[in-house]
Amino acid sequence: MPSGLLHGFAILSSVKHSPILLGTSSFTATGWRGSFYPKGLRPADYLSYYAQHFDTVEIDSTFYATPNVSVVRSWNAKTPEGFLFAAKVPQLCGDENYVATRAGRQCFGSVLNFVGHIT
Questions:
Q1: What is the pTM of this model?
Q2: Which DSSP string do the residues of 19-84 spell out, in sequence order?
Q3: Are 83 and 52 spatial neighbours (Cβ–Cβ below 8 Å)?
């Protein structure tokens, strides 16, 4: 990990306020192989490695579709207890016609449904 990033972590960890969770918008960003992820690390191991350095990650794929339960369980198995997954709001929730024809918060239901599969 770059020394500037380590220094930043040291500063943030000394703050005596509510926890600050650090993360990124993805754990599969192209261009991270060799710069963040060690060369030779399999993509299947990216999330486990990522979770050793960050406390949270945005799940960008929820913008496009609800993840399969087996995928969500796999993410959970690869991360420590307390790791936070931040689901991106589905693109349909921004569509006024879709939202106007649905009751309440129905557009969020399919994404939030996968939360029950994370212990």
A1: 0.67
A2: ----EES-SS-TT-BTTTBPTT--GGGHHHHHHTT-SEEEEGGGGTSPPPHHHHHHHHHTS-TT-E
A3: no
